[in-house]
Amino acid sequence: MTGRRPGSGRDERGTATVAVLSLIGVVLLVAAAAAAVLGAAVAHRQAQAAADLAALSGAAAAEQGDDACGAAADVARANGGDLADCHLEGDDVLVSVTVDVPGGLAVVGEVRARARAGRS
What we know:
The structure is a single chain. Helices cover 50% and strands 21% of the residues. The chain is built from two helices and three strands. The chain has a three-stranded antiparallel beta sheet. A hairpin with a 2-residue loop joins strand 1 (82-89) and strand 2. Helix 1 runs antiparallel to helix 2 (68-78). 27% of the residues are buried. It comes from Nocardioides phosphati. InterPro entries: Rv3654c-like. Keywords: Membrane, Transmembrane, Transmembrane helix.
């Protein structure tokens, strides 16, 4: 028994190992890509929640005559985000909040969400 198929003339020992290792590499690559996409999606949800709450907090502060953007920044920070932009437009407070994507995904880095709140 030499490990050769009759009539093939080639030694094919180890080809299954190479195929299995290649398949494992592909599976790991797909899993890493899926984790990156899911991390970005979770970060966007967090950014949107922080922006919504920051805008509501800013609108409530503005209605009471307090610093709307200061209140919005505090709430955004408390919810894991950074207030990137805040301004008043009439009775509305418009905010933009950024959140870093976990895992250091260099392609995305951070995600941004916007929200508006005020009197209806």
